[in-house]
Amino acid sequence: MNRPYSPSVRRGNLVFTAGQCGYHLDKTLAEGFQAQTRLALENLGGALALSGATFADVVSVNVFLASGDDFEAMNAVYTEFFAEPFPARTTVTVGLRPGVLFEVNAQAVVSDQ
Q1: Among the CATH numbers 3.40.50.150, 3.30.1330.40, 2.40.50.140, 3.90.1150.10, which is that of 8-109?
Q2: pLDDT tens digit sequence for 28-71
Q3: What's the rounded Cα separation, in Å, for the pair 39 and 42?
């Protein structure tokens, strides 16, 4: 079945990623908030790479949490992937798919080089 989905899209120097969750390649979810967050961010790195971008190119991030209580735990994992100066970030608490605790997408600008 074809899904109307692209992990990332590049237009010129701009890269936009789809939402990434803590799913393994076999479509199972990682267990626990920090494991899901780490895997989702690893998946985000893969989506960025598909369009020629890296975490260093990211200018904006949108984070979706199933529970606002996980904000500090998210920050702890987030800083494993992003360094100062950090991208602009919006973090909201939302209803996610069953079992999903964290979702993230990003926008990046890649150089012409």
Answers
A1: 3.30.1330.40
A2: 999 999 999 999 999 999 999 999 999 999 999 999 999 999 99
A3: 5
